Amino acid sequence: MLRFARTFPILTLAATLALAAQPASEPVDINTATPAQLKALPGMGDAYVRRIIAGRPYTAKNQLVLRGVLPQAAYELIASRIIAHRPAR
Fold it and tell me: Which of 17, 24, 66, 74 is most buried, judged by most C-beta within 10 A?
C-alpha cells in the first residue's frame, strides 16, 4: 500500500502532463494551412506537406486519400484534426 501511495502522485502528474500536451485547438483547414501548420500534424513530413499543398483545393478532407495524396494510414492519423472548407468562388 505504501508503494502505491508514493507512485500515485507521480502517475497523476504524468497523466495531467500528457493531457496538457494534446492541443485543444481548432482543426487545420487543408486548403489554407501553412506548411508549418500541416507539418505540426502527426505523421506529416515535408513530402506529405508538399503533396497536400500541390493538390489544393479540396472540397472534402477524404479527398486526400481518394486522390492518392496520402495513404489511408497517414490520413487516419490526422482525420480528426483537419477540415476542408470549400474554396470561395
Answer: 74
CA distances from 68 to 62, 63, 71, 75, 89 (A): 10, 8, 7, 11, 25
31 occurs within a structural domain? yes
pTM: 0.71
What CATH number did the domain enclosing 32 receive? 1.10.150.320
Amino acid letter, 38:
L
**Cα 49 from chain centre:** 12
Q: Identify each DSSP E strand in the chain by its residue range.
A: 28-29, 82-83
Note whether residue 46 is domain-resident. yes
Count of the separate structural domains present in the chain: 1
d(CA 79, CA 2): 44
pLDDT at 56 over 60: yes
